[in-house]
């Protein structure tokens, strides 16, 4: 970290945050958008490595965007991004960026590990900036609730990084669910069973007994951010494997689950669940070193949601399977003669079934019954560009926080259930607490000293 970035006042960071109505150059209703006087969105990219570089390139491709600032704790990531945008100002510390660019930027994208999402996005929203945030929205349920409320109050444009929600496949699935193509929905089975993901992203743990020197290109203190400090170790935290650790990520269900949930959540208009429970690997459950530090290499989560006019019953069951847990064979058999999609959602209705493969087009089952079923013509849509267009006065975004926040809350309740396996957890959404008080400690973590967020 440079001397300049170190000079950012902790007092300014922890002190009062300017109210959006005062600090923001443009305040808007989320459904309307705002009009920039120059019709150009001045944007800052916070996190430009890995997925962040992908996000940056998508924003760069929109003619209505001018990326004026870049930020990353890894100098190598920053150097690569700066090669694409040599005129953009470079920062190591996101706090410095938001302070120095306050009167310049209109929007930011937050593409960093989950544990730092809230601190950055909340600060940006409080300063009146439009926010595109990678999924999951936050690390903790309480953070999601606060960020959702803040975004609505500030009236800024928001978008969760569920980019496939803007694709033709997910949007068609939402329409088919809403129009009752398979009748009333009885049950949903969601899964993510990529074998490569188990090997690459799901570490068995435990953490190394000894740390190693931090490479000169990485600011480890800034990378740790709100999480408890731990020694640096190569290849298991930065840049990708952080998802396997409870301090930094939300496990596979918190990550890919946001994609698989999305069409089902929107199509059915689901609300907060009544209860959640989970089953996990026996080896993980029996190892205190692992179950207090890493996420399991497989889990099976069951939510019970309130039913509505689109479901068959007053209570609607939704199940999630990942890693070493697979959907029942009788469900996979509904899609015969083809490999069952490793990442997908299957909805069982009173008149048929709907398979929603991740990143592909949905399929009505049995296929011979629906061969003549009409499909609407949908336009191509870029999730990132849709966010930009909304910021410039266009239609509401596909995954704005008022909608995707409650979905993320439900998904993260599943991560709480993982940490208390084989326990039925009844949920009171209004009071934001479980009937089993032991589970409530997982709804909000304690931030590292010096990284507390004012107003939270």
Q: Which structural class is indicated by helix and strand composition? A: alpha/beta
Total beta strands: 15
Rg of Cα set: 22 Å
Specify the helix fraction band. Answer: 25-40%
Strand order of the largest sheet: 13-12-11-7-10-9-8-14-15
Keywords: Signal
Pfam families: GFO_IDH_MocA (PF01408), GFO_IDH_MocA_C2 (PF19051)
Signal peptide: 1-23
InterPro entries: Gfo/Idh/MocA-like_OxRdtase_N, Gfo/Idh/MocA_oxidrdct_glycsds, Gfo/Idh/MocA_OxRdtase_bact_C, NAD(P)-bd_dom_sf, TAT_signal
Describe the secondary-structure layout.
Blueprint: H1 3-6, H2 10-14, H3 20-23, E1 41-46, H4 51-60, E2 65-71, H5 75-84, E3 89-91, H6 94-100, E4 107-110, H7 117-126, E5 130-133, H8 141-154, E6 158-160, H9 168-178, E7 185-192, H10 195-201, H11 220-224, H12 251-255, H13 257-268, E8 275-280, H14 282-285, H15 288-291, E9 299-306, E10 315-322, H16 329-332, E11 343-349, E12 353-357, E13 363-365, H17 383-391, H18 401-419, E14 425-428, E15 433-434
Parallel strand pairs: 1-2, 1-4, 2-3, 4-5, 5-6, 7-10
Antiparallel strand pairs: 7-11, 8-9, 8-14, 9-10, 11-12, 12-13, 14-15
Helix pairs in contact: 7-8, 8-18, 9-13, 13-18
